[in-house]
Amino acid sequence: MAFLVKGGNGQYSYSNNSSFQRGAIHATKELINEAIAENLDIKNFSSSNTFRVTDLGCSVGPNTFVAVQNIIDAVNLKYQSQGHRTPEFQVFFNDHALNDFNTLFTSLPPDRLYYAAGVPEYQKRCWTKPLPAYNKGRIHYSNSSDKVVEAYAAQYAKDMECFLNARAQEVVCGGLVAIIVPGSPNGIPHSQVFVNMGSELLGSCLLDMVQKGIISEEKVDSFNLPTYFASPQEVEAAVERNGCFHIERMEMVPQEIPSGNSSTSRGRVMSSHMRAGMSGIIKEHFGEEIIDELFDAVHKKFDESSLFESWNRN
Fold first, then answer.
1. In the chain, what is the greatest distance between 2 CA atoms, to the nearest angstrom?
2. In the prediction, which pLDDT does 61 show?
3. Per the UniProt record, which residue ranges are transmembrane (predicted)?
4. DSSP string of 51-117?
5. What does pTM read for this prediction?
6. pLDDT per position as a tens digit, 122-133
């Protein structure tokens, strides 16, 4: 996906509504540590040279700082275990050109031991919006026709090919690429994947707004979320087809059920996370005036639905 998340530090900002993504970083920490310990080849890396790390899709923090520090700690351990002096580090924070880099850089950890640089706009060269078959009454491929699913899958394959080709030009010999993305278990119908159910729920709220005369049916029919949640088999096929990399390890990592509290329901947590990630692309297509009402409706539908019962099955 390549749309702009909500910047700043406000109530609906990505900074304050990205605990699910942070959970994925924590859940994959040991996998990345093991990959660095076992597979990072430092024989040709001089510790007198700068070791460079790039976060592609850094957003506005603070998750990126956690991910970057995990990698730096693991690399330092690798150098120390082989009796080498640890190198200096440079970190490139990379995202959409309109990403809120001001918030990102004002939030940099004061005790960091690396040089930081912002490098905007890699996505334009790789990720493009899918152009699916006509998808009347839906905003996503879940529960859509085979042609729509095939169009999304084909677009995913093209985007991954572009992404891997670009990384092949950048990664030094012996380096590693770690990809953390939402996915679908092998063999599970798209309609039964939790993240896809959330997209379906969002689409139903937009259709409710059509019925109320707030937006037009044509607007909904021409809108498609540019997200595709690939299975491990599809990821493996994309890497093998590209031929520039080989997979050292790949795992599906379960995430925890979102928890509410006495003042915030799980539906509110989910709707706030979706708003932080999707409000930009929705605003671009439908206008800013629908955002509050739309995500209030998403919140209520989540609370009224049984979707959270499906979470553990994915």
1. 69
2. 81
3. none
4. EEEEEET-TTSSHHHHHHHHHHHHHHHHHHHTTPPPPPEEEEEEE-TTS-HHHHHHTS-TT--SEEE
5. 0.88
6. 555 555 555 555
Distance, in Å, from the CA atom of 62 to the CA atom of 109, rounded to the nearest integer, reads 9
Q: Give the CATH number of domain 1-127; options: 3.60.110.10, 3.40.50.150, 1.25.40.10, 3.10.20.310.
A: 3.40.50.150
Concatenating the DSSP letter of every residue in 301-313 gives HHHHSSTHHHHTT
Residue 20 or residue 77, greater confidence: 77
Round to whole Å and give the CA distance between 311 and 308. Answer: 5
What pLDDT score does 313 carry?
A: 52
- Mapping DSSP onto H, E and C, the string for 137-180 reads CCCCCCCCCHHHHHHHHHHHHHHHHHHHHHHHHHCCCCCCCCCC
Which of these, 15, 90, 99, 91, lies nearest to 57 by C-alpha position? 99
Cα(178)–Cα(167) distance, rounded to whole angstroms? 11
**First-last CA distance in the chain:** 21
Residue 17, SS3?
coil
Task: Quote the pLDDT of residue 33.
Answer: 96
DSSP state of 192: G
SS3 284: helix
Query: For residue 290, what is the DSSP state?
Result: G
**Is CATH 1.10.10.10 the classification given to domain 129-173+183-227+261-314?**
no
The amino acid at 76: N
pLDDT band for position 240 (50/70/90)? very high
Residue 279 has pLDDT above 70, yes or no: yes
Burial category of 60 from C-beta neighbours within 10 Å (exposed 0-12, middle 13-18, buried 19 and up): buried
Cβ pair 7, 13 in contact under 8 A: yes
Comparing C-alpha atoms, which of 216, 14, 2, 291 is closest to residue 123? Answer: 2
Cα-Cα-Cα-Cα torsion 9, 11, 17, 19, nearest 10 degrees, comes to 90
